[in-house]
Amino acid sequence: MNQLRKWTPYFNIWTLLSVIIVLLVIAPNISIFISFFVESSENWAHVKEHILPELLKNTTLLIIFTSIGTILIGTSLAWLISAYQFPGKNFFKWALILPLAIPPYIAAYTYNGILNYTGVIQTTLRNRFDITVDQVYFDIMTLPGATFIFIFFLFPYVYTVTRAYLANQSAALVENARLFGRSNLAIFFQIILPISRAAIVGGTSLVILEVLNDYGVVQYFGVPTFSTAIFQTWFGMGDLAAAIKLAATLMIIIFMILFLESFLRRRKNFSYTTTKIRPLKPLRLTKWRAWTAFSYCMIVFSLGFLIPFIQLVDWMLLTYDKIADPVFLSLIKNSLFVAVIGSLMIVVFSIVVANFARIHRSIISNAFARVTILGYSIPGAVIAVGILTVFLEIDALLGEIYNFIGIDSVLFLSTSLFMLISAYVIRFLAVSYNSIEAGFEKIGTKYNEASRMLGMNITKSFWKVDFPMMKVPILSGFILAFVDILKELPLTLILRPFNFDTLSTKAFQYATDEQIHEAALASILIIVITAIAILIFHLVLESDERRS
Amino acid sequence: MFVEIKDLAFHYPNQKDFTLAKFFLTMEKGEIVSVLGASGSGKSTLLRIICGLEVPYSGVIKINNEVMSDESRFVLPEKRGIGMVFQDYALFPHMNVYDNIIFGLKKLPRKERKERADEVLELINMVDFKKRYPYELSGGQQQRIALARALAPQPSLLLLDEPFSNLDADLQIKIREELREIIKKAGITSIFVTHDREDANAIADRILRMEHGFAYPCTVKI
Q: Where would I find the ABC transmembrane type-1 domain in this sequence (chain A) (predicted)?
């Protein structure tokens, strides 16, 4: 009897929609988990014995060395930028985020194009200096090469989180250590690294998830990992069941990593409890110290952005006439179309679940929030497998209805753009959810409650009171989802309808067809749009932080 | 009786202890009752339960002979017709004073809406501030606007949650007399929560003391 009354506040459209959204997100993941226990195919035995060990080895090596590299580069840069003043510092503070604008797969074929036999380095050596080099030293298409790409294009995840943390949190500790006469290097290793552990772990786990998600780099470089193996068993052997088994194995690895992350972060969030945050005052570096800092930042920035970007511009100028045609225009249209529709859906879904979660603070709403952000941890190839199995099921169920209303295909949904867009939604929901949740957190519930006390229901209160105050977080949620969809590769490759190409799939296809120069225009478009979006996002974020 | 609350109990989902237990209260129409207690005594929670923002564990709430909450029934906050002045006022920052006040009058025709808004602005003596935005007002002015906004839809019951806690001490004395006057003039039944004995004395017809979720009636003013 107590129950009915307890649930009355839940009877509204937000609850209903939230339940639907959460089911949508969770269905593909569950379908993979279930299939893990289903009897395996013949191929699986083969895959398990001959392929799996290598996948595990490669994945482990990539994760370990990329993590070490991104932590070293990311935290050292964060420390330099927040604790010191040197020439170019204000430029590098923002410029060092830019490598994120270059998707690793674009970086991979660009670097290969720079370093290979016909690339700019070797031709210059041959033609100007008459030096022919041993190809072994210039072969980037190896596991260490892939690690190099991941490190230099993913380190900003660690850099941004750690810098934000250090800028706000470390002032008192660092100043004390300086008073005690500790050397700068000692401060870095004995104070900075330990106190920013939670931030570093958070940033690094994002890096690891990106590495596991990657398909482009490892496929192009020929380093077998789970993503490539899922593609291969599925399309090469035509064995979806074995692909699902691989996906499920990868998912178990992901959950282990997430568990490790929360374990490493537990109770280690050293934030001050007071609201009076004093920013760290930077020390001015002089003479050779200043130039060393400058050179270090410049080298990282060049490797992670400048060099590949200039090379791409050069190639674009070579091939521009040939590429820019109506077909290319349709690529842009396709890319914008899926990105706009996908991110609109993502933003709406995020608002619904986030609003539901904040109004009913309960175990259920917490669980919903958790599920909503689950997709970001799951690699594209895994989501692709999961969503395809779900859509095939739905198509099988609806087959009769298709017949009845005269649709000519038994695979109506699973060959439609709808499937691809659903996959984007699941994978990138977390990106905008986090932004929107933070926005709700900031305005709190009091305005909503005041509005309800004045006779407006939850929905009206949202439109009249919350929405006008939420424009910035909603917009940044949209931008983040938009750029993520724009540069997405594995999901798009697997789930796109026949003959449907986007900028990213076309660029990757050119590159794998040894037409690297032709890939430049599409790549540059992706990079420029992403770079603008990222910079706007971080500027808004910082001005927001300063205001509050 | 205009307000009847019987055996109300409540605990937050993640807490074992009851924030509020065995709470009884009856009120005449037009009466002002103060609930006096230290922070954490459960007095704000009491208001949130009465207005429907929290679901009680057990008990009955009746206002004007209508059941708001009992074993089987729970009326949503927006349907209760209760007005609330929040501790930090919660004036909508993106609306000016006039829009804040007519927010609860959306069901009235435009003309009546305007008349009612002018009426309550008159009541609080702030007719000239219509076009101002909340951030352009002093704390005392914000508080009066919040009161006017809550009074505008003519609620059956008015709840005030520590309305003086954000004001300077000088202002507080002046305003609490004003507040009692306004409420009495409007003839509205009110429950007023405070931690300040002086406030309670100055405003209330009757005082209820709260400690650790239990209420004790005070027969005389303290």
A: 56-259, 332-537
Q: Do A450 and B104 touch (CB under 8 A)?
A: no
Question: Do A431 and A304 sit in the same domain of this protein?
Answer: no
Chain B, nearest residue to A448 by Cα: B90
Q: Which two tokens stand for residue B119?
A: 């009426």
Cβ atoms of A372 and A433 within 8 Å: the answer is yes
Q: Is residue A316 part of a domain?
A: no
> Cβ of B93 and A8 within 8 Å?
no
Residue B131's identity, in one-letter code, is K
In angstroms, the separation between the Cα of residue A443 and the nearest Cα of chain B is 10
DSSP A9: G
A452 touches B at CB < 8 Å: yes
CATH number of the domain at A86, please. Answer: 1.10.3720.10
Residue carrying structure tokens 């207690």: B37
Domain boundaries, position A498: 9-39+324-512
Contact A382, A375 (CB under 8 A): no
Could you tell me if B88 lies within 8 Å of chain A, comparing CB atoms?
A: yes
Residue of A2, A5, A453 to mutate when probing chain B, most B C-beta within 10 A: A453
Q: Which one-letter amino acid corresponds to residue A252?
A: I
Nearest to B13 among A362, A446, A464 (CB): A362
Q: What is the pLDDT of residues A205-224, one digit of tens each?
A: 889 988 998 998 999 998 99
ipTM of predicted complex:
0.90
| Alpha helices, DSSP H, located in chain B | 43-51, 97-102, 110-123, 139-151, 169-186, 197-203
Shared-domain flag, residues A331 and A249: no
Q: CA B188, CA B150: separation in Å to the nearest integer? A: 11
Place of tokens 């989902």: B13
Give the whole-angstrom CA distance, residue A517 versus residue A524: 11
Separation between Cα atoms, residue A437 and residue B131, nearest integer Å = 32
Backbone angles phi, psi at B95, to 5 degrees: -125, 150
The answer to whether residue A534 sits within a structural domain is no
How far is residue B71 CA from its own chain's centroid?
25
Place of tokens 């057990």: B58
| A300 and A328, same domain (yes or no) | no
Express each pLDDT in A377-399 by its tens digit: 888 888 888 888 888 888 888 87
Q: How many CA atoms lie within 13 A of B193 on its CB side?
A: 25
Report the domain count for chain A: 2
Rg of chain B in Å (alpha carbons): 17
CB pairs under 8 A between A and B: 76
The pLDDT of residue A425 is: 93
Q: Are residues A284 and A147 both part of a single domain?
A: yes
Q: Please count the CA atoms within 13 angstroms of the CA of B37 that sit on its side-chain side.
A: 24
Inform me whether the C-beta atom of residue B135 falls under 8 Å from chain A C-beta atoms: no
| Average pLDDT rounded to a whole number, residues A505-511 | 89
Using CB atoms, pick whichever of A9, A447, A455 lies closest to residue B92: A447
Alpha-carbon separation of residue A173 from A9, A169, A279 (angstroms): 47, 9, 12
Nearest partner of A230 among A212, A206, A208, A247, judged by Cα: A247
Q: Does residue A340 share a domain with residue A276?
A: no
Residue A274: the pLDDT is 45
- Structural domain includes residue A313: no
Classify the C-alpha dihedral B134-B137-B142-B145 as positive or negative: negative
Q: What is the distance between the alpha carbons of residues A448 and A461, in angstroms, rounded to a whole number?
A: 6
CA distances from A296 to A140, A244, A281, A373 (A): 22, 44, 21, 36
A128–B contact, CB cutoff 8 A? no
Q: What is the mean pLDDT of residues A293-317?
A: 93
A469 touches chain B (CB under 8 A): yes
Whether residue A437 is contained in a domain is answered as: yes
